[in-house]
Amino acid sequence: MNISTRIADKLPLLSSRVPLLGVPKSGVVPLLQFNKRFRFGFPKKMAWSLDKCEVSVEDKFGLVRSATEAYSEEAIEALKAGKVIAVPTDTLYGFACDACSLEAVNRIYEIKGRKHTSPLAICVGDVSDIGRFAAMDHLPHGLLDSLLPGPVTVVLRRGESSILEKSLNPGLETIGVRVPDSNFIRVIAGGSGSALALTSANLSGQPSSVCIKDFENLWEHCAYVYDGGVLPSGRAGSTVVDLTKLGKYKILRPGSAMEETFLGLFTSLSYNLNKYTSFRGL
Q1: 61-114, pLDDT tens digit by residue?
Q2: To 10 degrees, the CA torsion angle through 265, 282, 1, 208?
Q3: pLDDT at 280 exceeding the cut of 60
Q4: pTM above 0.70, yes or no
Q5: For residues 120, 268, 41 and 72, what is the CA-based torsion angle, rounded to 10 degrees?
Q6: Which one, of 247, 79, 259, 66, lies nearest residue 151 by Cα?
Q7: Residue 198's closest CA among 230, 151, 245?
Q8: Alpha-carbon distance 204 to 108, whole Å?
Q9: Which of 116, 259, 264, 271 is 20 to 30 A from 243, comparing alpha carbons?
């Protein structure tokens, strides 16, 4: 089993694996003329507004806050202090902490009852931040912008310049990276000055959470729980795509945005290749 497949099997914020239907995992992709309206593969309706969230569940521990800008500084301070918080993304609720804090990362594993051999993804505030943590120089211009922000996890090599702690996912040369289409988590990720380690807010092996009530039994283990209401994407989690190899891609998990992800890859890669050249999937 290769490293990319290993990450896909264990990556957080994803549900059980399902087969790809109607989309080839490899083969020749026909040329598609670039059109600016396809540059971003995800419709605006998927964006999650800071002002849309309201606390709707009884707060037994005094930890629940609205996932709004008013509480973003509080969340950032908790992350900097090495705490674990629960946050909404554009797919599922997740536990988040400073990815460069070994103590905080270990705390997430304890809360979930998760084996340390199961790797965590990271979340950053903007596409431009990815280069601090993973290698992206080999990618065609605009490719990541065609996929992110959005419900997609891109698997990249860490690279020699990555500032990630070696203790995060030890032994793996790759890292799953997210830039969710969710304003609150992007604001706090950017404000933290680091990447966030991110995993689904549930006990390991249990169903993923689409509202904070789903993981109420775990609230007490968090510094804060940020309520963004019921998330609309279902429990499929993010789509995972391997972009570690130059000129190749591989869809590892369909997730909740398979069609949009394929369109983003299809469009960006076609635009960046010679018009007489085909692109071969991995």
Answers
A1: 799 999 999 999 999 999 999 999 999 999 999 999 999 999 999 999 999 999
A2: 20
A3: no
A4: yes
A5: 50
A6: 259
A7: 151
A8: 11
A9: 116
